[in-house]
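User: Please predict the structure of the protein below. I'd like the answer in structure-token form so I can feed it into my own downstream comparison script.

Assistant: Understood. Taking the following sequence of 459 residues as input:
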Amino acid sequence: MKKEDILHVYQRAAFGMTPSKYKKEENRSRIEVVQDLFAASDKIEKLKVETPELDEFLENYSERNDRKKLRHLIQESRSKTIEFNSLWLDRMATSDAAFRERMTLFWATHFVVRSRNIIFYQKFNNTLRENALGNFRKLLLVVTQESAMLDYLNNQQNKKGSPNENFARELMELFTLGEATLYKEADIKESARAFTGWGHTFNGHFVNRKKLHDDDEKTFLGKTGNFDGEAIVDIILEQPECAYFICKKIYQYFVNDTINEAHIAEMVKVFYVNYDIKELMKFVFLSDWFYNQENLGSKIKSPIDLLVGLKKVVPVSFNNDKQLVYVERLLGQLLIEPPNVAGWPKGRGWIDANTMMVRLKLPSVLLKNGVIAFDVKGEFEDSFEEFNKQSNLNRKLNVTVDWNQFTKNFNLLTYQDITDLLIRCPINNGTKEFLKNLEQVDKQEYCIQLMSLPEYQLS
């Protein structure tokens, strides 16, 4: 397998490669490289912050609980969600199961939720992780029954005689079929009736509240019966449009923002058989067209891709979890706070004059004690005014940088090796000359300058 192809598949599937990983995969066949990528992600390891106070409260909950205690735990939950954000980013940058983490991130951008309840949020996140490479039917069904999803799209309030259509609408429009395809408003209403009664307990366990379920006959996508939510899921999966919709999203995320209908048709043939996510992804990564020139270095890195990639090159950790939240927000993608149910932008939507400036400056800010302006506010930052007072508007990030590990990783690489490892698109002659002059500096500075180039923004 060509060097550029190995680097390409690892960039798209695993946030990039470490030098040691590249040396291991060098000169191997495509199928061997892809098999290694998948094998490393066979093991499923849950991601969890410790929540002893919240766990004890939920275990002993009654309506007579102290309201002051409840308010304190709500604040504690928000704090733990911010901690989870940091833990998740670190996992993506350091886990051997990087492909499973990549797929977890993909599904989190597809099945979008927002929740300040850390118990619900991390349970949902781990459900995505556990099912990220399994069967899409199972993933879809368990997602519909997650407390975070039931809350976010109001199915907790969906009951017989007063159906709430939010979840039923987004299930088809955003999660399975796409906007304005084969379903009508009547199908949304009938689907909502089928999901009546689906909810969760106070501590987040799914319950089918039969007294709140509409048992009357329903007609959905041309079929009639006494359908419940699971039957609706199965009818949706029968539609080839569902397989096409998911394959198109995977193609745009992993291959190219510009779709190729012939390639997607090939993917649909594989996926529609039994909705096996792992088999679909193997087909993509083993296909010749995945490595076509137009797909190499063609995608703008998402903010999370950018941060994870930086951490993979130079191990850096934030000593203040809220500072990571601010940086993610400045870049335009806060993991724990999608802007709406449609999720974050993509492609050129990641870039504007402000975010591009932050992106180009970020390596120096993180790795050379640069300063960054904290002048954004979000609803997760309750103590924002105190943290972000005028004296802090231009301040250094409180981070720990492990240059010793960087030296171990990159010591034996040439400057050209480092460039090949980090840059995925062609470099113009002016930049090549600039890099040639940089070879007079140490490798730390060389990497910082490489990651500050516009070319580094592409994957």
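That's the full token string. The two ends are 19 Å apart (CA to CA).
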